[in-house]
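note to self: dont lose this again. the chain is below, predicted strucutre after it. 310 aa total, dont forget to put it in the shared folder this time
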Amino acid sequence: MRLKQGPPFKHTPAWRVAPLLALLMQGAWHHAHGQSEFQSVREKGLSLILAGASVHKADSGDAVSVAIIWAHLDSSRTMKRIVFKVRPYDANGQAVVQLISPYGAFRGTALQTTGPYEGRDDFNETEWEAVWRNTTIECLEIIDIEVDYTDGTSRTYSKELPQLLVEGFTNSCKGIKKAGGFVPGSDGTITDNQTGLMWAAQDNGHDVTWDEAKQFCEKYKGGGHSDWRMPTSLELRSLYDESNSRTLDCDPRWPFHAKPPILLSCHSVWSCETEGPVEARYFYFVDGFAHTEDRSASIHYRALPVRSQK
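---
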C-alpha cells in the first residue's frame, strides 16, 4: 500500500511526526542493531535515544527545514513535550547565528514537538519546516534537550547527550565542508562528498522484491568493495531533488525527482527498514517520502546499493 502523505517540506512553517524505522545519512547503523542500542541506553539510566539530525533545503528559495530521529523508551511515563536546542552550521563548519521566536535570545534554535508520546522501542522522525531562511546552513548539532512528562516531572539532557547517540551518529558538524558534490568514479560508483556516502551509479535495472533487493545490495562488488548494503530511507532522501523532474518508461504517469548523476530505472527504491513481519519501507521519488509495502511486492521496485566510507 502506498501511503500518500503530501509533498515533502512545504514552505508553510509547521512540524509533522511520522513513525520511521530509519536513521539519517550520518551513519551506517542498521535497524537490526536497534534492540541492543535501546538496552544500552536503559542500562545507563537514560530513557531517550537519538539516531540522527539533518537539514533540508526545501525549494529554490532560502527556506531550510530540520529532521530529528529520536525515541522515548520509558514505558512507565508519557512524554508531554520535548524541546531540542540546536545550533546550525555552514558548509565550512562555522556556527551560524540564527534565532527563531518564541524562544528568545539563544545562539541557535529551540525546536519543540508536543505529544503525548508513550514510551516504546520505536523511532519517531520529527520534521520542522522552514526553520531558517539562510542558504549557507548545511548542518546542525543538538546541544541540549528538555523533556516534560504528563506526571508533571521534567528532565534536561545536556552532559548526557553523547550517551544518547546510536552507533554511527556523531551529532557533530566538524569536517562537513563540501568538495564538489557528486563525484563519479570510473568503477561504476558515485561519491557524495556532502554526505560521505558512496552509491552505485545505477540501480539493479529491473523489478525486485525486498529480499531480492537486500541480496543484490549485499552481494554488490562495485569499486572492489565488499561492504555494500541497502540504504535507509533518509539516505535515499538525500538523492531527492524536487526541482529535477523526469519520467521513466517503467511508469510514465508519474514524474520522479532524483539528483543526477544517479541513474534510476524506476521511481521506487527499497530501503533497509522493515515494519513487522511482512512489510518494509521504500523511498518514493515521486513525492519525496518513505512509504510501506509488502516485502513480496516487486513491480516498480528497485535496489540501489550504498556504502559508508571509512
